[in-house]
Specification:
single chain, alpha/beta, Rossmann fold, 40 helices, 38% helix, nucleotide-binding, cytoplasm, SKI2 subunit of superkiller complex
């Protein structure tokens, strides 16, 4: 009876019964069909559109298929061994073609009984957007990629759509899926209830009767009973806006929308933290996280904002407790089952936070360049670079992300890495909220406004007013018996600068040096011994007063070491503390190999630590640094000599901070500390809950620092957050991969372009222009606009030609007669009395004739016709008066050929004297009246204009542009006579023309600024594209080629590494040799390979230069330093660390950091080699990486255990 299910059935004969089985859906019931369908031999077998679901296959065939016929399972190479038992395999070429099946476009959904919840039926539903995948879509609706790529993503993935970039295409807007249907409560309301004939009428009829022309603000409907069809009555608010006249309703809607968006333009909202937050516990009855202490106001405000899922920028003083905000966000995301990413600028800081958060929350993971711990956790701690690559590579983690916490945001000022922060902020999708934690910065609002604008969401700015533990700043002059016990208070806890303290310090220092000279004769004591004695006396003094722990900031690593070594006689720890230090030190070093435990640096530090002294800078081995940090936070290190890096975010407050000096070397030269740096370091003083005030001491060794310097440093404004945005090849290639994102979008959204928020001004100007009366250009006035342009050009040409030249300035000397044009004077003659010596803003004091009564310039407003070209000189109508004024270059419209003999001093003195009230009415002095008469005589003699100096003949200016400008001037002056509009009687009325034109010019300027053409980096972008095209990373259409795909994998020096890869430079080398060669990319302090690298670098450098990038080839090559190649080579060949340290004068810590970064480079090259398909090179890099990953260089951080 079921013969219909088999495939090869003979056609039904006359004896066959027409009968078939129909399967009903997925419920498994069958129905018998006996009525034949005409024209179809057999009816359909199933109600499912896609036929029956597959049945269970026979297990035997499955096993056979998997184990006997599967080419992947059977080894291909040693055939004979594999096929002794199995029959010979047929070659199946097609099996090599692999194509992933197209996604199912339907799924099953369950129908349940609404009351009991029992399964009733399955129905088939069609799915939307099944074609989306990580390779073709930016949408969050796309399918997840393979699990292996879920964490870091893949460099062929598209990123998710960055927030604030919703420039949707028309098709997307039309095709809004059912998931996001919008209900418009204004217009799309259903009017008639089902079953009724008439319904509500929601049209706005009620305006005219109630409140004419006032569209209501709040709509309150009063529906009277019994009347089915009543226009609702409005209670509109009184101050509702007037409706503008318009031709169509659509325009009206648009303008209304526009107004609303204009008004709400402020994205950054400062939160007031002065008033206490009383209803905190009412608003958050069961918080996600509870602390053992009462929160400060700013913390409560931040928590409230987080509960509302808003983004916040917390700019708080050091040790104010910013971490509370981060902790609450992590707790919230654990409550919501989402994820948080915490990024920090420095790896050491990431490790510390990992330990802290791990103790608090447990479910925490760490991702840095070389470590990956529990990446599935709800809170991930990582460096910003890793987050950037996750965003570019479309990692699946981003889907579940609720918060991203940026710690130490003021690091965005870092020239090298600041750009990474901006990229991450721009690339974050819309559903992620942002938490920014930073030290106090002056322009937090401006910065938040920028983020709010690019993300199109509000950012709440919360900042603290003062430090929880106030600081006192002292000067310490040093070691004469009198002053070794006293410090001079310079800035008290309330922030007053005490000059008295400064002067007493100066006196004490003077007295000391004079005594010194007497007692020692003229012999000069060596610097080092005085240094040492200052430190000894100071530290004795501090430990007596129980002011330890002390952090001493020294701005040179060698000085740090020397200072610590010189304290060999000092012992600051008790025997119990010594035992604790010893056991902790030994326990921490158990993970090192025997030989590494005997490194000189470790032995030296062990000796110092036992006496409570330590050193912390980048030259110290990482494991030692961590030991020192841990001992310091336990209070066992009493004196720590540190460089500036210790203050960057390492949360280790002390009681006292000492500055060895206030000058530091910043890579180019010595300079004083900036206020931001000083505050960051001084902020380490004062531990919350332990000290009432923190002490900051500045040592005055050579002499007391200048008061102005100290004042600027202590009370100056901290550094502004400034954009360090720059284009990198990686960024350009990553964005070119994805058609939907453009590099110009990224550039336009960068903080450096945040001045572009000129939309308001543009709309203002447009309104002003439309409000102005239109220019009448009929009849005689038809050439008014060309006339205007001629006149403006004439003014410009005249100024530039003469006044900016040296000889022109020489001619402007005392006694020269000039023509003055400014707000007060129109073509008035004047004579120069004095010329200022300031070459930047040069001013000229001149005596100018004017009407009586207009000396102050309050008289007639002759700005009325500024666009008229008028050469005739000013001749007063009434009695002639004079005024003495300072003129700028632009006020002088012409230099005449005349000079007058004047006595400038007398004129100026006399004029100034008569400005005083009691000499107001005195007659002018002889010198003045003579000069005024002369000027008047000149004006009357040449009423239509006076001869001016000719730049070419008189001033001897022979440069091409001046001669050209001069000829152009003549042409313009000639052409003015031919205009008709001058003769029109209406001419004088066209005053508004000038204003109108200037507004129009400003508008054009702003419109240009908003366009992509004005991006500051646009030219460089085109240059870099040119470089990429000529190296064949992208083709002429901008599509990324194989080389470009490889370069995307590499985070720094991408061009050089890719070129080396494609030129096969690394293939002939042994693994350890290639590791040594690549060390030049990571070492910041000279075999056959080196020359190759240099030549490739030289080639790229020259190419960049040709394409217009302003960096010379020498600079480009110079950034690769080959100082550590030998060290790395020996290390990769297995030499112990102790011997390697002997090979170089570079400090141990620097070597370790270099090798760690080298490991990251090797990993990237390995990835790249895989993309190219060079498996040999890939395995070689793997070997090199294994060779250097050993011993002390790769001991796991103490914080992660």
């Amino acid at each position: 009876s079921l013969c219909c299910l088999s495939a090869d059935v003979p056609p039904p004969g006359p004896m066959d019964l027409p009968m078939s089985l129909l399967e009903m859906g997925c419920s498994g019931r069958f129905e018998l069909i006996t009525h034949p369908v005409p024209g179809q031999p057999l009816p359909p077998q199933s109600t499912l559109p896609h036929g029956l679901p597959p049945t269970n296959l026979n297990l035997e065939t499955e096993v056979e298929k998997q184990f006997l016929r599967d080419p992947a399972w059977l080894p291909i190479h040693d055939k004979d061994f594999a096929f002794q038992k199995v029959t010979q395999r047929k070659v199946d070429v097609d099996s090599l073609l692999n194509c992933c099946p197209s996604p199912l476009h339907s799924g099953l959904s369950v129908v349940r009984d609404p009351t009991t919840g029992m399964l009733l039926d399955f129905t088939e539903v069609l799915l939307e957007n099944t074609g989306l995948s990580a390779k073709n879509s930016l949408s969050l609706q796309r399918q997840p990629g393979p699990p292996s790529e879920s964490l870091r993503g893949s460099n062929t993935n598209y990123p998710f759509l960055p927030g604030g970039m919703e420039e949707l295409t028309l098709e997307q807007i039309k095709k809004k899926s059912e998931l996001e249907e919008e209900i418009d409560f204004e217009s799309d309301l259903l009017k008639v209830a089902p079953g009724l004939k008439a319904g509500m009428d929601f049209t706005d009829k009620g305006w005219n009767s109630d409140c004419p022309t006032h569209p209501p603000k709040k709509k309150t409907y009063y529906i009277s009973r019994g009347q089915p069809h009543v226009a609702p009555v409005y209670c509109g608010s009184e101050d509702a806006p007037k409706l503008p006249r318009t031709n169509s309703l659509e325009d009206l809607e648009k303008s209304k929308l526009k107004e609303n968006t204009e008004e709400n333009k402020k994205w950054a909202i400062p939160v007031n933290i002065t008033s206490p937050c009383d209803d905190f516990y009412k608003r958050i009855p069961n918080p996600a996280f509870k602390w053992p202490f009462e929160l400060d106001v700013f913390q409560k405000q931040a928590v409230l904002r987080l509960e509302a899922h808003d983004s916040v920028f917390v700019a708080a003083h050091t040790s104010a407790g910013k971490t509370v905000v981060a902790e609450y966000a992590i707790a919230l995301s654990q409550k919501h089952m989402t994820r948080t990413i915490y990024t920090s600028p420095i790896k050491a800081l990431s490790n510390q936070k990992f330990r802290d958060f791990k103790n608090t929350f447990g479910d925490v993971g760490l991702l840095t360049g070389d470590v990956q711990l529990s990446p599935e956790s709800s809170c991930l701690i990582m460096t910003t670079e890793i987050l950037r690559s996750m965003l570019y590579n479309g990692s699946e983690v981003i889907r579940d992300l609720e918060w991203v916490i940026f710690d130490e945001v003021h690091y965005i000022n870092d020239a090298e890495r600041g750009v990474v922060w901006e990229e991450v902020l721009i690339m974050l999708p819309d559903h992620v909220s942002i938490i920014l934690l930073s030290a106090t910065v002056p322009n937090a609002l401006e910065f938040s406004e920028w983020i709010g604008r690019i993300k199109k969401r509000h950012i709440y700015v919360i900042s603290t007013l003062k430090r929880p533990v106030p600081l006192e700043h002292y000067l310490y002059t040093g070691n004469s018996t009198k002053t070794q016990k006293e410090m001079f208070l310079l800035l008290d806890a309330t922030g007053n600068f005490l000059t008295k303290g400064y002067y007493t310090a100066v006196d004490a220092k003077k007295e000391r040096t004079s005594k010194h000279a007497q007692s020692f004769g003229t012999k000069n004591t060596s610097q080092n011994t005085t240094d040492r004695s200052v430190w000894l006396t100071l530290l004795h003094f501090l430990s007596q007063r129980q002011q330890t722990p002390v952090v001493a900031f020294t701005f040179s690593r060698t000085r740090c070491d020397d200072n610590a070594r010189s304290l060999d006689s000092m012992d600051l720890t008790t025997s119990i503390e010594k035992a604790e230090i010893h056991s902790f030190f030994q326990k921490s070093l158990t993970r090192l190999r025997g030989g590494d435990r005997q490194l000189p640096q470790i032995l030296l530090m062990r000796d110092l630590l036992k006496r409570g002294i330590a050193v912390h800078h980048s030259g110290i081995l990482p494991i030692l640094k961590e030991v020192i940090e841990m001992l310091f936070s336990r209070g066992l290190v009493k004196v720590l000599f540190a460089t500036e890096t210790f203050a960057m975010g390492v949360n280790m407050p002390a009681r006292t901070v000492v500055f060895d000096s206030i000058r530091k070397h910043d890579g180019t030269g010595f300079r004083n500390l900036l206020p931001g740096e000083y505050i960051q370091m001084a902020g380490r003083a004062g531990r919350r809950g332990l000290d009432a005030t923190g002490t900051v001491i500045i040592l005055c060794k050579a002499g007391v620092h200048e008061m102005a310097d100290l004042h600027a440093m202590m009370l100056g404004k901290p550094t502004l957050l400034q954009s360090q945005f720059r284009l990198t090849y990686t960024m350009i290639l990553n964005l070119l991969r994805v058609e939907a994102l453009h590099v110009t979008d990224m550039m336009r959204r960068s903080f450096s372009e945040s001045h572009r928020d000129t939309q308001k001004r543009i709309s203002q100007l447009k309104q002003m222009l439309s409000a102005m009366p239109s220019v009448d250009t009929e009849g005689q006035l038809s050439d008014l606009l060309p006339y205007y342009h001629t006149v403006t050009e004439l003014k410009k040409t005249r100024e530039h030609a003469i006044l900016e030249s040296v000889n022109g300035l020489k001619a402007l000397s005392v006694g020269r007669v000039i023509v003055v044009n400014n707000k007060q004077h129109l073509n008035a003659l004047g004579v120069i009395l004095q010329v200022s010596s300031d070459s930047v803003n040069r001013t000229f004091t001149a005596l100018i004739i004017c009407e009586k009564g207009n000396e102050e310039g309050k008289g007639n407003d002759n700005a009325a016709l500024p666009h008229l070209h008028n050469m005739s000189l000013f001749i007063p109508e009434g009695p002639c008066s004079h005024t003495v004024q300072k003129l700028k270059l632009q006020d002088i419209s012409a230099i005449t050929v005349k000079t007058l003999k004047v006595i400038p001093e007398r004129i100026i003195d006399n004029y100034n004297k008569r400005q005083q009230p009691r000499f107001k009415l005195d007659p002018p002095g002889q010198a003045i009246s003579t000069a005024t008469q002369e000027l008047l005589r000149l004006a009357e003699a040449n009423p239509s204009g006076i001869a001016t100096l000719d730049p070419v003949n008189d001033l001897q200016l022979k440069s091409v542009d001046v001669v050209e400008a001069n000829m152009r001037l003549r042409v313009l002056q000639e052409s003015l006579r031919d205009f008709n509009c001058i003769h029109s009687p209406m001419f004088a009325e066209q005053v508004c023309l000038c204003e109108r034109m200037s507004l129009q010019e400003e508008l054009d300027q702003l419109l240009f600024l908003v366009s992509d053409q004005s991006l500051t980096l646009l030219p460089e972008y085109h240059q870099r594209i040119k470089v990429l095209q000529s190296l064949q990373y992208i083709d002429n259409g901008g599509a990324v080629q194989l080389k470009g795909r490889v370069a995307c994998q590499i985070s720094s020096h991408e061009l050089l590494l890719t070129e080396l890869l494609f030129e096969n430079v690394l293939s002939p080398l042994a693994p350890e040799e290639s590791a040594a060669l690549l060390s030049c990319l990571v070492f910041t302090q000279n075999t056959q390979g080196i020359e190759r690298v240099k030549s490739v670098a030289q080639r790229i450098g020259e190419l960049q230069r040709e394409c217009g990038i302003p960096q010379t080839a020498e600079e480009f090559v110079g950034q690769f330093k080959f100082g550590l190649t030998e060290v790395v080579y020996c290390w990769a060949r297995g030499m112990p660390f102790a011997e390697i340290a002997q090979l170089t004068d570079v400090q141990e810590g620097t070597v370790v950091r270099c090798i760690q970064r080298l490991d990251e480079v090797l990993k990237e090259v390995r990835q790249a080699a895989r993309i190219v398909g060079d498996s040999v090179l890939g395995s070689k890099m793997e070997k090199a990486s294994l060779a250097i990953r050993r011993d002390i260089v790769f001991t796991a951080s103490l914080y992660t255990h």
